[in-house]
Structure formats: C-alpha cells, structure tokens
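Postdoc handover notes: sequence design on the structure in folder B. Input tokens:
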C-alpha cells in the first residue's frame, strides 16, 4: 500500500498516468501495441531575467505548451520469460501552428523532438537490456523521488544527463528488492575531419551506474555519472548521488537526497566557466501529500558551490518548489507550480553596467488531457 502512494504521487505530477490511459491498438498472440499521449497547455512567467549564456531575456507571462507528447509502446512475448519491446515518443508544440521555430505562421513541421526511441529485451530471470534514445538510468533510479514537478523544481540531475541517444543499458532483475543498473553513451567522431593526418580519435564513452533497494514504503538509491567533457560536453568530473524516500502511510511520503561533483582544476585554470567545471554539494528535502483527487509537492534544496562566481550566476543558494495538482477525471487534471531558484543577479553587457535579476519567482498554471 505504501509503495502505491509514492508511485501515484509521481505519476500525478509527471503525467505518467498516461500509461494507464493508453489505448491498446492491437493485442493478440503475445504481440501488443499501445498508443498514448497528452495535450497540455498553461501560462508561465517569472524566473531569471537571463538565459544560460547570461544574455538578458524578458520573463513576462506567456501562453505555453506544457510538454505535450504522443507515444507508442510495443511488445512481443518471445517466451514465458522473455519479452521483446520497443518504445517511441514524440514531443509536439500544442500551443501554436509552428513546429518549433516560431518564425513563420506557415511552418507545419509538427513534431519538435523525438523524446524516446529504443528497443530491448526483458527477462524476469536475466534482467533488461535496451539500446537507443532513452532517459538516464541515473535519473530513473537515483533522482526519481525528486522528479515530481511538471516543469521546474528538480535541482538534481535530470533525464538528459549523459543519455538520450546512442546509449545502451542493462538493469538486473529484482533480487529481493535490490536492482543494479549500468548505462553507456557513445560519442562518436566518425565522419568528422581531423585537423591533421594521424590526429587521435576523440570518440568518448560516458557511463553511469548504481543500485537501488525497495521494501514496502522504503526506497534507497545510490549512483554515479561519469560526466565526461570533450565531445560529451560535461564537467569532466564524476557526479555522485544518493536518495532515500519513505511512504509513512497512504497519504504522506518524504524524501532526502544528496549530490556532489568535484572541481575540474585543469579546465578552471584554463579559464573555463565555474558553472561548467566547478564542484558543488546539493542537499534536497521534500514531501508529497495526497488526499482524494488532490496531490501536493514541496521541496527545498541547499546548493553549496566551489569557486564562487556570482557575477556569472554561480553562487551558494537555497532553492524551493511547490506544486498542487487536482484530477477532474482520470483523463483531465489541472495544476499550479512555483519555483524559486534563488539565482544571483548577473551583470549584462560589455560595460557591466546593466543588471539582470535572477531572483524572480517562476510560476506555471495549466491543464492536461491524457489519452
């Protein structure tokens, strides 16, 4: 019963209830095809007045698409213990006619992203192997208890971290509550032209792995990400994380998490941005309360950073997030979320005379229809 609460709360926030609403198109002789999706609209506003490159940007209210998507799940029973499966999911912009560029009212490109596309084999005896484009196993196993917000509010690593494309992964079967995972993403240099003959191949493989344990309402997880730089575009340092969550009853669950990264001293000495290469320690504490058709999330984070650079948005901070969700029906829900990232103000422009506010509260309100 207690495990059901945590799963239900996460599903309510992330729209994972789409799985329950999926329509079975075909199911015969062990072969099954489901179609699912959601159309989501909202109004968003606030947040920092600067982007990831410290360029000034307006943060006024806007009518937005809230991660609408369409997906297919496929499976075939090879034997009583082995199932072959496939999964593909697309994102589309549901709030306007353009496909993603907003540059032309005659752009009907439709889908804006292939969000998931992978195949694999699943066995209760030998575990699961899959390959393609999918969410980071680290997120699914370690930071998932905190990934309960529709948009902003997760200060730990999310689904793209050294994942999403050209990846393979393995998850062990459930061993009395224990499961281990290992994933690798390949960054290839095939087809690129070296600057000179004989130059070393700069292909890279970034791995991540860990273990989780579940028993009734208790969930523990520990993992790492080899956040390689170079073609992988990471920090060049290992990221380590651990989370614990517990469902006290059918209405209330709490979560605690920690994540850390070391300094990449070589890149910092060469003039690299502190936000990209400096170390940090992040603590998170949160809770979910569900009652009837309502669900509520509340989380607070303390982020302590090395090599502080507040002028470029890299400083110690305390962030928090709140979310409320109401299910009008099994297919339709409404939501409201707040996020205060506590980002420092930064200087904008070559003269350093303009200041962009990083402390504006972000808000999102809207509704979703699942099918």
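Designed sequence:
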């Amino acid at each position: 019963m207690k495990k059901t609460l945590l799963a239900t709360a996460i599903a309510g926030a992330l729209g994972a209830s789409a799985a329950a609403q999926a329509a079975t198109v075909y199911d015969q002789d062990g072969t099954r095809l489901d179609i699912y999706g959601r159309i989501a609209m909202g109004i968003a506003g606030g947040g920092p007045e600067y982007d990831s490159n410290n360029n000034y940007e307006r943060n006024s209210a806007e009518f937005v698409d809230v991660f609408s998507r369409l997906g297919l799940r496929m499976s075939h029973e090879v034997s009583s213990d082995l199932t072959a499966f496939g999964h593909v999911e697309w994102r589309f912009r549901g709030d306007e006619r353009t496909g993603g560029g907003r540059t032309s009212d005659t752009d009907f490109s439709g889908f804006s992203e292939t969000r998931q596309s992978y195949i694999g084999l699943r066995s209760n005896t030998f575990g699961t192997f899959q390959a393609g484009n999918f969410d980071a196993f680290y997120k699914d196993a370690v930071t998932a208890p905190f990934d309960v917000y529709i948009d902003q509010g997760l200060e730990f690593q999310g689904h793209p971290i050294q994942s999403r494309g050209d990846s393979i992964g393995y998850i062990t079967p459930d061993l009395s509550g224990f499961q281990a995972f290992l994933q690798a993403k390949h960054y290839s240099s095939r087809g690129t032209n070296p600057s000179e003959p004989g130059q070393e191949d700069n292909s890279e493989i970034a791995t991540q792995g860990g273990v989780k344990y579940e028993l009734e309402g208790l969930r523990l997880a520990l993992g790492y990400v080899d956040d390689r730089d170079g073609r992988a575009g990471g920090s060049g340092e290992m990221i380590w994380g651990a989370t614990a969550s517990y469902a006290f009853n059918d209405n209330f669950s709490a979560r605690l998490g920690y994540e850390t990264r070391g300094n990449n001293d070589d890149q910092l000495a060469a003039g690299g941005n502190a936000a990209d290469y400096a170390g940090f320690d992040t603590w998170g504490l949160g809770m979910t309360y569900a009652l009837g058709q309502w669900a509520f999330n509340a989380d607070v984070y303390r982020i302590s950073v090395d090599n502080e650079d507040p002028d470029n948005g890299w400083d110690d901070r305390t962030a928090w997030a709140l979310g409320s969700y109401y299910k009008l029906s099994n297919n339709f829900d409404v939501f409201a979320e707040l996020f205060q990232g506590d980002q420092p103000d930064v200087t904008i422009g070559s003269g350093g005379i303009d200041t962009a506010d990083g402390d504006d509260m972000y808000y999102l309100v809207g509704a979703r229809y699942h099918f």
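Context for whoever picks this up: Residues 25 and 94 are 24 Å apart (CA to CA). Don't rerun without checking with the PI first.
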